Amino acid sequence: PIAIDGRRGLLLSPIHVSDAVDALLAAASSDTDEPRTLNVGGNEALGISDLVTTIGELTEHLPTLIPGEAHEPGGYVADRRAFSRRFASVPQPRGFREGMASLLASDKAA
Predict the structure, then answer these.
(1) Which of 12, 23, 77, 89 is the most exposed place for a label (fewest CB within 10 A)?
(2) Residue 110's pLDDT is what?
(3) pLDDT tens string 90-105
(4) Is 47 exposed, middle or buried (0-12, 13-18, 19+ CB in 10 A)?
(5) Which stretches within 9-95 are classed as H helix?
(6) How far is CA 59 from CA 31, 46, 91, 110, in A?
């Protein structure tokens, strides 16, 4: 069983490692000297319950969730709008389900 705070648990914006690499390479090769902090993350705000349920569906091992009585804990969700404006040529990151499916498929192939 997986205990979570509130209904969905901590919110995150997971990003596939290849999408993070694409974003970092674009930033590293930028020809602008304008200093700026930009967020890099996935496009989805997913709770722990969303993450483990998706993984469970993909692996056919559905988790047992134990929601907490506490309020929703908030989270760490990237606002990537400024990054997307500055680096418009970088493709949008894949969704969590697609990224996790590709990771599981590559693990099976290995």
Answers:
(1) 89
(2) 63
(3) 999 999 999 999 999 9
(4) buried
(5) 17-28, 48-59, 81-86
(6) 43, 18, 28, 16
